[in-house]
Amino acid sequence: MSQNSRGIPDGMVEHSAFDLQSAHRTLQNKGQRKKQKEAKRLERLRKKRAKELKRQRRKNGGNTDATTDGIDANSPSNAPSTAPFAAPSAMPSSKPSLGPSVSPTTAPSVSLSSSPTLSIEPSSKPSFTPSYKPSGMPSLSPSTLPTSKPSDVPSRRPSAYPSLLPSMSPTYYPSAKPSMKPTGSPSVSSYPTLLPSDTPTLVPTEPLICGGLSRTERNEIVEATLLDFFPSGLHENATNWIVYEDDLDLCANDTFLEQRYILATLYFDTNGASWIKGSSGGRKWLSQKSECKWYDVECSDDGFVKSINLESNNMDGTIPYEIESLHSLQELNLEFNKLSGPFPLLPSSMLELKLNNNKLSGVLPEKWPPNMSLLQINHNKLSGSINSLSLVTTFRVLVLHRNEFNGTVGVHFGDLETYFSLHKNNLEGSIPEDVCLLRDGFTPKLSHLSADCLTDPTPPKVSCPSILFEDVPCCTECHN
Asked: For residues 259 and 291, is the Cβ–Cβ distance under 8 A?
């Protein structure tokens, strides 16, 4: 629907104008009929009066100069009439009449009347002073002065000047000029004001984020999404950081939300504030930068974490179980720290793991990444069997010494190369023959093989068979 220059729909304006014109024509028709009726009555009175004048002239001997009852119709009277005359005066009187005339005068009165006239038709021009009571019909033109009291209902069109008093209910359209006085309560607008207000607002306008959400809505949805990732429970500090403190303000549908949360759990669970590297500086952890730019974090071309190297970093605490959900992580190096707790579950993408020289305890997991090639977990307090390692056929390096492993050694450990250490444990049995075969030849694949194979005391805890066709044990180092 089109609107005029004041922002009022044209249909409303045309409808309102039509109603006014129709009412005005009705009043005009009624006034004309009344005038015609009054004119006929006056004509009858005039003829009757003319007859009376003829009789008086005949009675007075035909003196046409005599006045009728001392009244001259061509001159104004010195005092107002006490009763209405049949016809209007030819000239205006100097004083107002005490009662209204039967028909209107041809010229306005010189003095104002003591009381307002009662007109059946609205005036064509606005009055100079406001009415004390509302009229039955609206004025054709707006008044030049504001009313002294507010109207009971709002105007459909804005006034040319602001009201002196606030209206009881809001207007449908904005006024052309600002109000002279402030309202009792603030306005509620869908859009910001063009000019600043005189006094500051009590609460700042909250910008919408994440596709039209308020901050509260975004926070609730992000936390719910994290709980979908980890239904067993959320890390309190990491959750609070992601939801309320992280300047990056990731949305719930962000591809890297889960990854960023997991690195935050690693930071908080290993006392990140006391780290030697990564707790400050341009590449510190928990900065507003992408996690791929944090200290010793390496990502793939598509932005997923593939390597974390935080060796010798004064890490104290436990490795969070959420590490298993870093689905692109291939290398994790946390050696030479003070980490404790159980051995972590690993993502299936893991290739190399270095957790040596820590305080880890408990048993090894039953399930390992299928393509793992390096496991370096020496110098911990791990216990139990090592047979689950035989399920991985891709191991090249196994460094297991100086733990508390127990059980027998008699299973296959893959196509080992370079290094295999078992000494300083509580293992028994014999080194598998296929492992000893890796030591055979002038250029053996396996350059280092160590076990608790010393013959003193006799017999050794772990025996090392001789290399084929040679009377030489296949172990390169024997310990007790």
From this structure: yes
CA torsion through residues 14, 19, 22, 27, sign: negative
The residue to which tokens 């196994």 are assigned: 398
Tokens 């930068």 belong to 289
Residue 24 confidence (pLDDT) above 90: no
pLDDT band for 174, please (50, 70, 90 cuts): low
Angle between helices 257-269 and 215-229 in degrees, nearest 10: 80
326: three-class secondary structure by DSSP: coil
Structure tokens at 433: 């023959």
Give first-to-last CA distance, the chain, whole Å.
Answer: 97
Beta bridge partners of 419: 397, 448
Token pair for residue 320? 């969070």
Mean pLDDT in residue range 103-123: 54
Report CA-CA distances (Å) from 5 to 21, 154, 177.
Answer: 22, 19, 15
The reported pTM is: 0.59
User: What stretch of H or E contains 48?
Assistant: helix 10-59
Instruction: Evaluate if residue 65 carries a pLDDT over 50.
Output: no
- The chain-wide mean pLDDT, for the chain, equals 79
Helices H / strands E in the chain, number of each? 5, 16
Q: How far apart are alpha carbons 94 and 298 in whole angstroms?
A: 107
Per-residue tokens: 202 = 């009590």
